[in-house]
C-alpha cells in the first residue's frame, strides 16, 4: 500500500486547482509521489493518485509510462544517469558509463545490493559543451573524468 | 566576431536578480512596449525579420499574425524543452538571464493579447527551473506580473510547467499535449496552434531565445536589429558549439557568420594534430556537412538550406578524424528510436529499423547492400507523419551514408575495433 503524506495530499489539491484543466496536474503529482515512494512509480502509487485526484487510473498510468523521468522500477538512493548521446559519446561518455557499472558491479538499470546506486544510460541532457556529464538525482555533474567520478562515488553515503 | 545583443551581461552574477537586471536597463523596454499599440509591436517584430530560434526558423511576427482577430482567450507558451542533441543555449539563457526571458514574454503576451503564459521547461533542468521560478516571484512582487502591470491596465499571469523527459515535447503540439496532462504526442496540423492550441484555444509557442530577442528588437527598433545578420537571417543567434573543439560553449554571433570562424576563433580550433572530418551544423537532426562543405558554410538559414542542411537550433557539433561516422550515426539512430512517440507507423517502425540496421553495421554483421536498405527505409520515412521527428531521423541517416559511403563500406569490410563495446552499450 502507498499513501501520500498529509503534505502530499495538500500538494495534490493545490495542483488540481493550479491549471486551467485538472489533467495538467498529473505530471506534477507524479513527481511528488515518486519522491515519497523512494524514486519510483509503483502500481500502488498510480492507485493512490487516481483516488486522490479522482481521475481514472489509466490516465495516470499512460502519462507515467510515457515519460522517462518517471521510473517504472525501483532505483537506488543515487540514480546516476550518464549521457551517451553524440557530444558526450565523443568525449568518452560511454566509457564512463562502463567504468561506473564495473566499479559498482551492476548492469544498467540494476540496483546495487546495498540499495545505494542505479546507473542508467540517458539521452542528451543539454550539457554538450561540458561533456562528458552525468545527472545524479536532481544535480548535474559536468566535465567528468574517471577520477572525478570515483571521488564522487566515494563520497556518496 | 561576437555580437552580444542578448548575452552582453551574462557574466554578471547580479544580472540574474531583478535588482541587477533593472540596474542595467531591465524592464525599461516593457514600459516602452506598454505604451505602444499591440499591433505596432507585432509589426515591429515582423519587420525585424526575427525567425524562430528553436529549429524551424519560421517568421515570429507572421506566426503571431495567424491568431484570430477576436477577443477569444489565448495562450503564450515558451518552449524551454531544449532537447535537440548538441543544444544547450536555452539552459544558459534561463540560468543567466531569467528576467530577460520574462520581459520578452510579457511584451509578447501584451502584443498578442494573452492573459496567461507558461514556460515549459524540460524536467531535467532542475536548476534553471529554480532560477526562473525565483525570478517569477520577484517579478510578481514588483508588480511586473499579475493584475494591471505597471498601471497599464494590462494583466498577465505566468507560470512554469516542468516536463518529464521526452524529446518529442519540444515539438509544439507535443508540448501542448503534455501541458494538457497527456502523453506528449503531437497533433495533426492544421489546425495550427495559433488557431486551436492549448485546450483548443489559440496558442503561440515560441522558443526561449526567440522571446528574449523581442527585448532588443522593441528597444532599438526593427531596422537596428536588421543591421545584424543577412537579409533573410536578421539579427544575432546563440550557437552551442560542442564536439572536437578546444573551447566548446555558447557563443552569440551575427547570423551569416562563417562556420569556420566560429570553430577557429570562438571555439579555439581543433585539438592539436587533428583534421576536420565533418560538422553537424544545427543539432543532430540537421544533415551533416563534410569538411569541404563546412569550409564554405555561413551560419544563416539560407546558406545551410542551400547546402541541403539546416540551421536548426544552432547546435554546431564538430567532428574530427578520430571518430567513426558509423559509430556516430548509430548513436544518433538509437536516440531517435528511443524518442519516437509511437503514434505514426513510418516513424515508430522506421526509427526502429534504422537503429537495428546501424547497430548491425557497427558490429560488422551487415552487407554492403544493407547501406542501400538504410537509404530506402529513411526515404520512406519522410513527409508521411504527423510531426517532423521522422524526417529528423531520416535526414542524418541519408546524409551520413551518402556523404561518407566510403567509410561505411570500409567499416563493413574491415570492422572497427571499438565497435563491439560501443554497440553493446546501446542495447
Based on the model shown, name its key terms.
heterodimer, A: 157 residues, Arc Repressor Mutant, subunit A, Glutaredoxin, B: 427 residues, Rossmann fold, Ubiquitin-like (UB roll), de novo design (two linked rop proteins), 3 domains, 19 helices
Model description:
The complex is a heterodimer of chains A (157) and B (427). Chain A is an alpha+beta fold. Chain A has 2 domains: 6-66, Arc Repressor Mutant, subunit A, CATH 1.10.10; 78-155, Glutaredoxin, CATH 3.40.30. In chain A, 46% of the residues lie in helices and 11% in strands. In chain A, strands 2-1-3-4 form a 4-stranded mixed β-sheet, with helices on one face. In chain A, strand 3 (134-136) and strand 4 (139-141) form a beta hairpin. In chain A, helix 1 (6-18) runs antiparallel to helix 2 (26-36). In chain B, helix 5 (89-96) runs parallel beside helix 7 (126-141), helix 15 packs parallel to helix 17 and helix 16 (369-379) runs antiparallel to helix 17. The chains are: A alpha+beta (157), B alpha/beta (427). At the A-B interface, helix 2, helix 4, helix 5 and helix 6 of A face strand 3, strand 5, strand 11, helix 14 and helix 19 of B.
| Helical content band of chain B | 40-55%
Helix content of chain A: 40-55%
Structural class of chain A: alpha+beta
CATH topology of the largest domain in chain A: Glutaredoxin
Q: In which order are the strands of the major sheet of chain A placed? A: 2-1-3-4
Succession of helices and strands of chain B: HHHHEHHEHEHEHHEEEHEEHEHEHHHHHH
| Low-pLDDT sequence parts of chain A | none
Report the radius of gyration of chain A as a whole number of Å. 17 Å
> What is the number of strand segments of chain B?
11
CATH first level of the largest domain in chain B: which class? Alpha Beta
Total of helices of chain A: 7
How would you spell out the order of helices and strands of chain A? HHHHEHHEEEH
Q: Tell me, what's the shape of chain B?
A: globular
Number of domains of chain B: 3
Major β-sheet annotation of chain B: 5 strands, mixed
CATH superfamily of the largest domain in chain A: Glutaredoxin
